[in-house]
Batch of 3 targets.
Target 1
Amino acid sequence: MINHMMLVVVGLMLGSAALWAAEEEAPAGIHYPGETHLANIRQLTFGGQNAEAYFSFDGTQLIFQSTRDGRGCDAIYRMHTDGTNVRQLSSGEGATTCSFIAPDGAAIIYASTHLGGPECPPKPDMSQGYVWSLHSSYDIFRADPDGGNLVRLTDTPGYDAEGVYSPQGDQIVFTSVRSGDLELWLMKPDGSGLEQLTNTPGYDGGAFFSRDGNWIVWRASRPTGEALADYRNLLAQDLVRPSRLELYTMHLTHREPIQLTDNGAANFGPYWHPNGRHVIFASNVDDPKGRNFDLYLIDIETRAIEHVTRFPGFDGFPMFSYDGKQLVFASNRNNKIRGETNVFIADWVW
């Protein structure tokens, strides 16, 4: 959104996923040895930068962001889960990110900078190292399923993005800088009923609900000392450095953060399996100084971790279908041009 952390690029939620590519050329192919949880992998997009593809509740549609057709930044698209009937939903003005389909299928949400101007916002200045831009013109919008009747849901100065619906459709969790820090917030689908969920210095973002709607899982940085000073200095410039992110969970009744990972890596894109016990996520834990991001599955009770994907490059942005039978993710695998990121879907095998 992206954005998304770690020695890669602005993916998840913060722009194009182009630079998530590995430094070296990787072998072509779709299915790699050791990917035993994945069967019948299919490639759904071919060319450009395609990421953050998320299922509709009935499992027949995907909404995603893509930089294609000569555009300089992401627009929002929709397609069938077999890759057909691709159509653009956003206007093409500004940059967009973090789209999601309401459980009843009657609306979509996404973040956009178009009110700040029709052009793509500037890329971040990398003279301070690898950073993401937190464009202050990002707000969250609701629209009809075809992209029409756009309604602004957030209206405060600064970054508002990374929004997703709860499975019951009664809440949206999102990331905002409105309190002076990057925190998680809840709101109703019409933008009312704002509640702040986190309140610890550092970046909190990329949250997703459990299937029963009782829990969230998200990525967070918890800098201290010099790292905290660096974080605050960058935040004042609408930037964030996503090189170290751990995963947290929270029950929405008790609202006490529970740390899920503690590996010092760039962990991101966590998503619950419908069984409520497992979370899939992307990480460079096995390549901490590189750009090889794989998908991993963690048992939230035992903390046991399984290595899911084995492509020697970027795999990220996973989402289980609501019945748990399929997994969609973005990957640099099977590229025709180095650096392309495409959407893949697979049957999930226990």
Target 2
Amino acid sequence: MIKRLHSLVIKSYIGPLFVTFFISLFVLVMQFLWVYIEDLVGKGLEWTVIAELLTYAAAGLVPLALPLAILFASIMTFGDMGEHFELTAMKSAGISLQKIMAPLIVLSVIISIGAFFFSNHVIPYTNLKTGSLLYDVMHQRPELNIKEGIFNNDIDGYSIKIKSKNPNTAMMYDFMIYDHSERRGNPKVTLADSGRMEMTDDQRYMIVTLYNGYSYEEMKEQSRGLKKNIPNIMISLISR
């Protein structure tokens, strides 16, 4: 009788466990996708790349989804048994709650051991692959990291602002670049009607091509008696 009881409890538990696990994993993957949606949309990525990224991300989120699934499945299983008075019938037959829960405790221990080995061997690999894929995607078209009308400071020593951009042609308009590399305020500013940004093949440098604009540089002030002179340099940018 105990074996049949344990079999009934496990059968009632397995279904909700799988359902709640995949629902929890789906919600966590959607949260991951929501965080990086701006880095993925509009870059012309193939669906295989996105599917690979989501697969690695889902594998990395398994340790978060599994405890939620175990908790919800346990609540659903015993809640359903209590609703149908099955727990009352078992206890009236002289079966303690510990014996009723014994198969689920053993199953949870087995799942915990499997989750430990999964986290120890699989998670480091999936985190590495997820990080490398995100890096490749984010640097595939660096101009998409720049928001319209907002200064971007991702490049050390420079602040970049654009008015608008065309995601299809990678062209950006109304460039404004402040050079802070010398650590003395805003002595250098570059203005251009349009331009584009692209990474070199080795991903070490970024090439910024500007069209129709000017570059202004304020030199160090020179004192002549009581008068202070602040010379300026202006360089014209002409498209070819």
Target 3
Amino acid sequence: MFLLFPHLPIAQAPPPQELVKIQEVRPLPGKLDTIPVFNSNSPEKVLKPGILLSTFPPQGKKIPAAHLNFSFQGRFDVFAHHVAQAPSADDLRTLYLGILLHNPSPKKVTINVLQGASYLSQPDAPFIQLPAFSQNNLSTVFAGPGDRVVNDILRVRRQNIFPNQIIIPPKQSRMLLNAPIPVKELTPPLNGRSTLARLHSSGKVYAASLAMFAPTNDNGRERPPILKEWLNLLDNSDVAGPRDKAPTPPNATNGGIIYGRVAGVAQGSQWRALITDNQKVKYLTIPQPGKAYSYPLSTVPGGTLGTQQVQSAKMLVRYPDTAYSAHGNYGIQYSLQLPLYNKSKVSQRVNVSMQTPLKEDNLSKSGLRFFNTPAPQVFFRGTIRLRYKNDAGKSQTRYVHLVQRRGQQGKPLATLNIPPGDRRLVEVDFLYPPDATPPQVLTISTQ
């Protein structure tokens, strides 16, 4: 590269300028359901094999503290999100992720795999650069394994690596997943795997996620671990490492907040909401022309955008050095209904958008703060499903993939021309993607 004026300094990009949008921010109606979620996300980067998360009883185990003694029955979810990195330049062994289910009862248990997906960063879903807004009806747009996994589950899919049913005989265990996270031939030798499955069990089961370097055959070639080896690791190992930063206690008042990584059972698989003016009516009056209001999504302590509403799923059991709540709500589905109503006497043009304002707990500027040019950090990449009737009265189902950076206002997901006195139902569904950073907002604005 040749510089025409080598004696002049190269101009640096100016810092982004803040924009304040004066609009009402309302708590999101609805709440999480009570479906338990096996949530395995700590340690995120696994260098030392061992137990990632075990809900088995501690009795008979070498390290009792590594087992949380929580059983599942009926509907439950399994979420796991972990990264493998070569411990050294000459140690390129493949790390395996095993998810184990155990039937403690004297009768067989049938587990139906309702939906399931598991992808690697390489080669399944590399973190490629994507536009801020892409149509994704063909399900071909994704960046990162978490993005791809939640896209599959949103579309009610079961990847072929999962059986439709697992039958566990009395007092026995079976593998839900036995999958590699290879790093060999990658530069850098780093890879990740995201997994999400929705299950239904006919009886009580315990679950564990485990990490093991691939065993080798006599010829030195790697092979997948077998069930007996996973069970031996479960009985005799401690928790995997290195451990992530310990979280800030909920009542701490000094310094910044360390949210921590999640390892435990969270309560809540889906947040459903019918968003209306109030509980006495079944419609949502659109804003006045030039006005807007927003509903925060995936709020966390210290980031409620003035609503004081923390949406983080609570933990039913957890390891003591991991997150106190499932901050970020990775893998949780938001299913939001907006029965928009135009009370005015003229047609109105209404936009429904997702936005990523600057995180605040209290609104310092009486509105949401954005940047005129979004910051470089990607805070959200995922697919949104929209269902509504267009201006011709025809039912539409659209999938839109968003990549939003910190402080990004975002373009409309849908624009509707609503006649006077008319109502238009808009349904917004998405699963909060792993690797996203909360909060976002859902904004309704009238032009």
